[in-house]
Amino acid sequence: MSQPAMETEADGPGLLSRGGVLRLTGAGLSLIAVCYGLARFAYGLFVPVFRAEFDLDAGTAGAIASGSYAAYCAAIVVSTVLTPCFGGRAVAVAAGVVATAGTLMIAVAPSSPVLAAGVLLAGSSTGVASPPVAHAVARTVATARRNRAQTIINAGTGLGVAIAGPIALLTHEHWRAAWLVFSGLCALVTIWTALSVPAASARDPRTDGLRRALPRPALPRGSGRMVAAAAAMGVSSAAVWTFGRDILVAEGRMSEQSSTIAWIVLGAFGIAGAATGDLAGRWGIARSWTAIMLTLAAATALIAVAPGSVPTAWAAAAVFGAAYIGLTGLLLIWGTRLYSETPAAGVGLAFLVIALGQAGGAPAIGALAEAAGAPVAFLAAALVAVVGCFVRPRP
């Protein structure tokens, strides 16, 4: 397999040409889109039909979703360790293979245990995908283009969610066909990834194989702030990701179609998070973080106070999607700067903490919703985002 074209020596040895950067960015964007938008987040769109098909109660459906989070956390740790050893291409291709296998297992699932196994396998692909792609960009893209490439790739989550929503609306009862389509898309993207992502293998002296699989020190100066910021973002975003459609339907009496469209809008506007790299270049990470966290808080609060207004809910979903992807992009840049020698470790740590925050925040928000009502729980989540906006990197 041939390597993508490299820059001239004047631009720097081992760096991709402009065409190579475009191919890497396109493949990375697509890999994140299918892993996050299809293999992981699409499960929530199909929960009603899964419950009817496999006779699942709400608790079982929620437990399967929680298992997907757990699989993600385990996978991102493994991916973070393996990426410096085997290179960006090998681990990124593995993510595509896992996503393809997981979505195919869901499509042909004859029983609820097989469905659960497929959801866990598919969900774990997201944890495998992020570190190797960030590693490849950090190792092979010139500094002037790096932040833009990282945040464009990261916006693939929004693209994937935007694709999954219409497919869910169109297929509805023919859900197996939808998941077969998802699996086919995952397979095509896996091939593209194999052709476009440079190996950046352990032969790179900056990674040095197994000896540098983990960063030294494990928590460099400033990493505590990043961990706290990622946790606050994870907790605050859990309200919309876990209970967003529920509050629109239960509190706002919104139709199934309108609430699903809100989800599609969320994903479509998440693509705007690709501009985060340019925003960070102009404002810096600290100012951008404060502004976007406050935006996330405002969108979450708006859903709480007006869940029955379709235009308001769609607008809030759009703002939330752009803010969420923007914040993950900032954490991606933040992590690769803190862990300049082992960028996969910085991305892995940040995204792991986001997932842990969501996993811990979801049940807490659910309990508060049971005790005081969903609007109060959403306002509490918005308050966490307001507090988190002050946790910023040092100048």
UniProtKB/TrEMBL annotation:
InterPro entries, alphabetized: MFS (IPR011701), MFS_4 (IPR010645), MFS_dom (IPR020846), MFS_trans_sf (IPR036259)
GO CC terms in record: plasma membrane
Topology versus the membrane: Multi-pass membrane protein
Keywords: Membrane, Transmembrane, Transmembrane helix
Cellular compartment(s): Cell membrane
Keyword Heme: no
Main localization, broad class: membrane
Transmembrane helix in keyword set: yes
Domain Major facilitator superfamily (MFS) profile: 21-395
Transmembrane segments: 21-43, 63-83, 90-109, 115-137, 149-171, 177-201, 222-241, 261-281, 288-307, 313-334, 346-366, 372-391
Gene Ontology molecular function: any one: transmembrane transporter activity
Cross-referenced PANTHER family: PTHR23537, SUGAR TRANSPORTER
Name of the protein this chain belongs to: MFS transporter
